[in-house]
Amino acid sequence: MTTEDFAPAKVNLALHVTGRRADGYHLLDSLVVFAGVGDRLAVTPGPELRLIIDGPMAGALTAEPDNLVLRAARFLGEERVVIRLTKHLPVASGIGGGSADAAAAIRAICRLRGRALPEAALTAPLGADVPVCLIGRPARVQGIGERVEPLSGLPPAHLVLANPGVSLATPAVFGALRRRDGAPLPPLPPLADVADLARYLATCRNDLEDAACALEPVIGEVIGALGDQPGCLLSRMSGSGATCFGLFADRTAATEAAAALRHRQPGWWVEEAAVLS
Ligand SMILES: C[C@](O)(CO)[C@H](O)COP(=O)(O)OP(=O)(O)OC[C@H]1O[C@@H](n2ccc(N)nc2=O)[C@H](O)[C@@H]1O
Ligand SMILES: Nc1ncnc2c1ncn2[C@@H]1O[C@H](COP(=O)(O)OP(=O)(O)OP(=O)(O)O)[C@@H](O)[C@H]1O
Q1: For the chain, what percent of residues have pLDDT higher than 70?
Q2: Mean pLDDT of 114-143
Q3: Known binder of ligand: residue 167?
Q4: Which positions are catalytic residues (predicted)?
Q5: Which of 8, 30, 151, 189 could form a disulfide with 138 if both were Cys (CB 3.0 to 4.6 A apart)?
């Protein structure tokens, strides 16, 4: 018997850095959604714990013991499964690929074994992004990532994700921050449609964007190229970069924008996807 799960890209539509804890971790206030593009996992009972990685982005990873999928299995005390990870998301790119994989592995193993999801997984022992990835739906995320409040009522929306092929280490970006005392997110008003969402997001920021652009100036180019596309309501970096998103009202505009970007920048990873509701 095989159980399968999907590990969607996590997108921080807004990310405010509101403080820093004594242990160096940063306090965040973030509006997180998931896109209909991601990695796939298949878990099958086997003689020992083993990870096989394939897919278009497999080359960026090895099945090292510190792979987050293996760490997730060990966290559950699981030693007898073979996990196939089909990697579509660029690695170390601000869309939480590793965290989404870990969350998908936890869900799939628990389903295979008929277990409930362990509460402890929600305290972020495998990384700050794992709790929200376990939920996989729109949420406001606070603390260092462990406070997750699911949000309902976000309007349907489409995203174009673009990554210029540079990987950024999350600690390096946090380390390059000039300020760590941002205000929390403004209260979320009722949102009738995606234009309302864009207007709200325009009052927010990604506080990691300037630091990431200082490390990799091409990120500014990506944000500009997305924002120039017809129908793009807002463009911004996700997480600690370098992936950026453009927000679109409809699928046709997003598909055309993605095609235009791929044509102009054949070396970039570009995907169009709906926001998962
Ligand atoms: C920036 C975000 O992508 C926003 O969603 C996440 O907070 C990062 O989540 P993640 O990649 O799962 O992060 P972790 O693996 O827990 O942490 C990697 C490193 O990022 C820094 N880090 C991460 C999260 C956080 N709230 N404060 C931090 O300062 C720390 O240096 C940490 O050692
Ligand atoms: N299954 C995995 N997929 C991707 N990266 C992994 C995985 N397991 C371990 N890693 C390691 O985790 C690090 C972060 O990769 P990931 O793709 O999760 O970053 P990210 O998209 O920047 O995440 P975030 O948005 O949560 O900061 C990389 O250095 C990578 O080597």
Answers
A1: 100
A2: 93
A3: no
A4: 10, 129
A5: 151
Reported confidence tier of residue 161, pLDDT bands at 50, 70, 90: very high
Kind and range of the H or E run holding 26: strand 26-45
Task: Say which residues have a Cβ less than 8 Å from residue 131's Cβ, sequence separation at least 6.
Answer: 121, 122, 123, 124, 141, 145, 146, 148
What is the position in ligand 1's atom list of the atom closest to the CA of 12? 5
Q: Tell the residue number behind the tokens 């073979």, with chain if given.
A: 82
∠ CA 243-169-99 to the nearest 5 degrees? 70
Residue 11: which H helix or E strand, with range? strand 3-20
Question: Is 94 labeled as ligand-binding?
Answer: yes
Ligand 1-lining residues (CB < 6 angstroms) = 12, 15, 25-26, 28, 30, 96, 99, 127-129, 144-145, 170-171, 174, 239-240
154-183 exposure pattern, b = at least 16 Cβ within 10 A, e = fewer: beebbbbbbbbebebebeebbebbeeeebe
Exactly one of 5, 10, 101, 207 is catalytic; name it: 10
What average pLDDT is seen over the chain? 96
Q: Which residue has the tokens 């996992």?
A: 41
CA atoms within 13 A on the CB side of 6: 12
pTM for this entry: 0.97
Q: Ligand 2 in contact with 92 (CB < 6 A)?
A: yes
